[in-house]
């Protein structure tokens, strides 16, 4: 959870909405790690980001 917060807090403090969606997995040795896709919208335009 902490690593995900690091990647989204800065844009949210700037007033930019950010949306992170899970988009798959990658192999790392023997583990399968989740990968996320982050989208950043225009300032204070959450509706535009969601649509």
How would you characterize the overall build of this protein?
- The structure is a single chain.
- With 51 residues, this protein is of the alpha+beta class.
- It has one domain.
- It is built from two helices and two strands.
- Strands 1-2 form a two-stranded antiparallel ribbon.
- The chain is elongated, with a radius of gyration of 13 Å.
- The two termini are 26 Å apart.
- The model has no long low-confidence stretch (mean pLDDT 83).
- This is Glutaminyl-tRNA synthase (Glutamine-hydrolyzing).
- Keywords: Ligase.
SSE layout:
Blueprint: H1 2-13, E1 18-28, E2 31-40, H2 46-50
Please report the number of helical segments: 2
Number of beta strands: 2
Largest sheet: 2 strands, antiparallel
Mean of the pLDDT scores?
A: 83
Order of helices and strands: HEEH
Distance between the termini: 26 Å
Number of domains: 1
| Overall geometry | elongated
Q: Can you give the helix content as a percent range?
A: 25-40%
Task: Look at the helices and sheets and give the structural class.
Answer: alpha+beta
With strands numbered from the N-terminus, the spatial order across the biggest sheet is 1-2
Low-pLDDT residue spans: none
Radius of gyration: 13 Å
What are the defining features of this structure?
alpha+beta; two-stranded antiparallel ribbon; 2 strands; 33% helix; Glutaminyl-tRNA synthase (Glutamine-hydrolyzing); EC 6.3.5.7; ligase
């Amino acid at each position: 959870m902490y690593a995900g917060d690091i990647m989204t807090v800065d844009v949210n403090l700037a007033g930019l909405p950010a949306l992170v969606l899970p988009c798959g997995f990658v192999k790392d040795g023997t583990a399968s790690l989740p990968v996320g896709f982050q989208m950043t919208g225009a300032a204070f335009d959450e509706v535009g980001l969601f649509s």
